[in-house]
Amino acid sequence: MNILVTGANGFIGKNLVAELRNRGFCNIFEFTKESDPLLLEKYTKESNFVFHLAGVNRPNDEKEFMEGNFGFTSQLLELLKKHGNRAPILITSSIQAEKDNLYGRSKKAAEELLVNYYKETDTQFYIYRLPNVFGKWSKPNYNTVIATFCHNIARDLDIQVNDPYVDLTLCYIDDVLEEFFRALEGKPTIQGGFCVVPVTHNIKLGELAEIIKAFKESRINLSIPNMNNTLIKKLYSTYLSFLPEDKFSYDLKMNIDHRGSFSEFIRTSERGQVSVNVSKPGITKGNHWHHTKNEKFLVVSGEGLVRFRKIDSDEIIEYKVNGEKLQVVDIPTGYTHSIVNIGESDLVTVMWANECFDSEKPDTYFLEV
């Protein structure tokens, strides 16, 4: 199957081409502003499906709206008609097509071209009036306010929020692609006479800004955004794609002494915290118990001995663990416990606790095993 993608190096186009390849489509005709115009002659002759994503939304000259959105669409349709190619056409329009502005009028004009083309040729078409699409590979100060916020906040640059109460309708790129593939199969989602992406999100501009600012702070407070919230999950993935290339990593606070080190890695209000514990050879850590706090120990390097004793018993329970065979050891409440490095190298243990450490309510009571 030959698939033509116009605007193939744009935000939506790059994501679409990448996913087409992921799904095994090999014959993809990528057409961009930089492509040889003669290629469009070949592509419109041989294509079995057309994703018409090319368009102009931030021109240097306002007349480029009509040239890029109406003019190029007209050229594309004329070539398809010339070759008698009735390949289905999917076109990305905009919710701005409902409004009386230069951009909206140019998008509306392109839609009307496609409708008239259908009347002439009986070619199947899909018009998507997309809201604010966001995701990886979008451009700051061009595609969406989310791209601008993510780019600037990740770089400690100012953002502008003129009216925090403005309502936004957002659509994530992966949801757009899922819908496009439904259209490719001839099963688009249709509402009110237009094709739509069924999954959208509504949020106020000010709330959006605060959420993205919190992503940056999460490196400091070690929090994880609420992944149960689908919009926040998608926004966080987008934010990470905008990190400066020299800022992918960040330091953790290492509490170091002669015994080794202890570093908190992740803190969450819903799922507790994860830490990394390093013990030097011969060192014992722990010797305490908890009422409600419970933990999981996972030794990933070295050799250790996890010891337990119920606080009202003399019986000692022992588990040998090492990094060669990954085993999780649950730490029950009511048992004093310790972990001893019985090897000759550092013992590295990943530790999960069901609640974040609170110095005012530590729920930790010293008692030797």
Describe this structure in words.
With 369 residues, the protein is α+β, with helices and mostly antiparallel strands. Among the domains are: 3-130, Rossmann fold, CATH 3.40.50.720; 255-366, Sandwich (Jelly Rolls). 30% of the residues lie in helices and 29% in strands. The chain contains eight helices and 21 strands. It has a six-stranded antiparallel β-sheet with strand order 11-12-13-20-15-18, with no helix packed on it. A hairpin with a 2-residue loop joins strand 11 (255-257) and strand 12. It is elongated and about 90 Å long. The chain starts with a strand and ends with a strand. 33% of the residues are buried.
Give the arrangement of secondary structure elements:
Blueprint: E1 3-6, H1 11-22, E2 28-31, H2 37-46, E3 49-52, H3 64-82, E4 89-94, H4 102-121, E5 125-130, E6 132-134, H5 145-154, E7 167-172, H6 173-184, E8 190-191, E9 194-195, E10 201-204, H7 205-221, H8 230-241, E11 255-257, E12 260-268, E13 272-279, E14 284-289, E15 295-301, E16 303-310, E17 317-322, E18 328-331, E19 335-341, E20 347-353, E21 365-366
Parallel strand pairs: 1-2, 1-3, 3-4, 4-5, 6-7
Antiparallel strand pairs: 7-10, 8-9, 11-12, 12-13, 13-20, 14-19, 14-21, 15-18, 15-20, 16-17, 16-19
Helix pairs in contact: 2-3, 3-4, 5-7, 5-8
